[in-house]
Amino acid sequence: MQSIAAVLAEHPFMKGLTPRQLEVVAACGEKVHFKPGQFLCRDEEEVLRFYLVYQGRVAVEIFSHRRGAVTIRTLVEGEELGWLWFDKPYHWHLDARAVELTRTVALDVNCLRQACEADHDLGYEILKRYGHSLAVRFRILKLQLVDMYGG
Amino acid sequence: MTGQGHASAVVPVGEPMLPRIFRVVKRVRETADTFTFNLVPADGGQELAFQPGQFNMLTAFGAGEVPISISGDPARPETLVHTIRAVGSVTKVLCRAAKGDQIGVRGPYGTPWPVEQAKEQDVVIITGGLGLAPLRPAIYHVLGHRADYGNFELIYGARTPADIIFWRELERWRGRFDTRVHLTVDSAASDWRTNVGVVTHLIPRARFDPENTTALVCGPGVMMRFTVQELRNRGLPLERIFVSLERNMKCGLGLCGHCQLGPVFVCKDGPVFPYSRVRDWFEKREI
User: Fold this and answer.
1) Where are the alpha helices (DSSP H) in chain A?
2) pTM (two decimals)
């Protein structure tokens, strides 16, 4: 079985970290699997974990009383869930549900924040990846807002 | 016809503005506003051979004439297939046509997808919305000559699951071992089990060798622009990214100038272009 550090080393979000940095991050993580239909997080819950998906598919949903649960995005292998873990008040504002058997490394966000504070080189590396992830997310969001296929 | 995606189409001779009469033999509802029609010559005359990517000018008698891409199999020209969305006054009348009704047809016109040039290469088809219709003949061609091509990836995006056209065929293509089909919608209910997100987000997942790949792209302008950017990020040169453009066409022969886009007429020099040829004019706001 692959160690957490080995899984992290292959995940695009963590790729390129030094072996020492990977060990520090891995110490904050555990492997967590989700069966189809199981929730990774629920709206308004406190953000305790930052998930790196390495197998499966996750539907990110927003609940509306009129339309029910609406899937706004899906995550697959190589993607991450939990972009609010760096920012107060650390609460989810969406639901995320496994669509198929999903394997993740779940990182304890308090542990990860402390590790980033203790080692600013690591913190900078994580923030760079976080920034890239946000930029990609915003690019996608803008295209969704344009409603490309409309009219 | 030259068979080259970047050359001008040869204009048919004879009575180029006179439509032939075709009869509707089948009408299939694809979505709430989109229909596929199978047509045969009303006089039982010669079938209409065409190449993937070409279009016809279709006449709804008493309403007008519009350019519509051919969406059928080029290896089966005995039936002419068009997929039409009811968005304007003419297409709304065309979409009401029933079995036995008559439709005027002029064509086929325009340059084809470069399916011959793409042989021995990986082929990536990226399309959104109704853009799958003009690409379906190219898909038929690649699948009909599968051994001639490398990896074949089809990426298709729609607004919602209800807006997806050619459902059954997508499922069939998805079930093939030699073809990868990536399907995505912008949003969906929670029972949707595949991708949700914009079509460009799937491009990094496609398996192709940028050194040896031809990409065929068709969809709304904004989708094509961002798709080209993503393909460039994957290392694909603009000369091997082909797009199909839409302009206001009238004659279909390169005579009237309605569809002029900078130095080209879309009806005659296109509608399929290598992106490198039209990049300066593509989505230009002033024209």
Assistant:
1) 4-10, 19-26, 109-118, 120-146
2) 0.88
